[in-house]
Amino acid sequence: MSMKDQVKAIQDASVIIGAHGAGLTHIVSATPNTTIFEIISVEFRRPHFELIAKWKGLEYHPMHLANSRADPTAVTEKLKEIMKNLGC
């Protein structure tokens, strides 16, 4: 996917889900009110993407993991909760 296509996909998204890491830097292209769901370990907790989300007017939701491994069921349940609150 070209960079232009990546930026367009982010601009068109209403929800962006990702693990903490360089890929989430794409949220700088997101439009205001886009929902960001960041999966992040408490071991590597950094506020970078939360701060970018606030700066851009995005709705930020962290999923704090107890360690560096994600429980797929817990992640899915948290995502369902957020989507329900969004009216989806």
TrEMBL record:
GO terms for molecular function: protein O-acetylglucosaminyltransferase activity; UDP-xylosyltransferase activity. It is a single-pass type II membrane protein. It is found in: Golgi apparatus membrane. One of its GO terms (cellular component) is Golgi membrane. Its EC number is 2.4.1.255. The keyword Ubl conjugation does not apply. GO terms for biological process: post-translational protein targeting to membrane, translocation; protein N-linked glycosylation. It catalyses: L-threonyl-[protein] + UDP-N-acetyl-alpha-D-glucosamine = 3-O-(N-acetyl-beta-D-glucosaminyl)-L-threonyl-[protein] + UDP + H(+); L-seryl-[protein] + UDP-N-acetyl-alpha-D-glucosamine = 3-O-(N-acetyl-beta-D-glucosaminyl)-L-seryl-[protein] + UDP + H(+). Residues 1-36 form the Glycosyltransferase 61 catalytic domain. This is EGF domain-specific O-linked N-acetylglucosamine transferase.
